[in-house]
Amino acid sequence: MKKLITIVVMALVAATQAQAADVTWTKDIKPLFDKQCLACHGATTPEHDEFGKDKKGYTDKGIGMRMDTYSHLITYVGWPFTGALMRRLDDGTFRTDQKPGNMYQYLGGTEAERQANLGIFKNWVGNWNQKRWKDISKEELNSIKAKY
Ligand code: HEC
Fold first, then answer.
1. Rounded-to-integer distance, Cα 33 and Cα 18, Å
2. Which of 47, 106, 114, 117 for mutating ligand 1's site (highest number of atoms within 8 Å of CB)?
3. Nearest-5° angle of CA 144, CA 92, CA 13?
4. pLDDT of 9-27, one tens digit each?
5. Residues 129/138/25/20 CA torsion (nearest 10 deg)
6. pLDDT of 58-98, one tens digit each?
7. What is the Å distance from ligand 1's center to 84 Cα?
8. Alpha-carbon distances, residue 127 vs 38, 117, 130 (angstroms)
């Protein structure tokens, strides 16, 4: 019986991992990003450092930094803007003040939609780590999936 339970649990774990591993930018993230984020982070928006030269000016106009390609978005996951995507999209569940990141609101029109879309982003990243470059370990970086 114990053996059977172990096998079932292992199969479930494998299935969940397979599902998570299946999330790719091309198939899942790009359509979601285009729907929820493109309006402010599209191809005509400035590169991160260009944005930085006039943060307030761009923000006041509702213009963000460019993130519409895999190559752009990945810099907000891994390096150099390590964890920025995770910090901004998180729902705040694990924070003491429960405050969501300021981009969480754009994940959907209802709480159910926001939660579902957050789940897709989480599965894509693989390791929903909110640490910055100076704090993240090699192991933590290694467990980021973010597949193309
Ligand atoms: C209405 C416009 C708007 C929408 C829609 C929007 N953003 Fe933003 N976003 C901004 C602006 C403006 C900034 C820069 C100001 C700030 O840091 O809050 C920003 C900042 C960010 C940052 C921080 C980058 C950094 O350098 O730290 C991330 C990550 C981000 N957005 C991701 C997203 C994602 C993912 C979505 C879609 C779910 C999204 N945003 C939707 C306007 C928007």
1. 23
2. 106
3. 45
4. 666 566 555 555 589 999 9
5. -70
6. 999 999 999 999 999 999 999 999 999 999 999 999 889 99
7. 10
8. 24, 16, 9
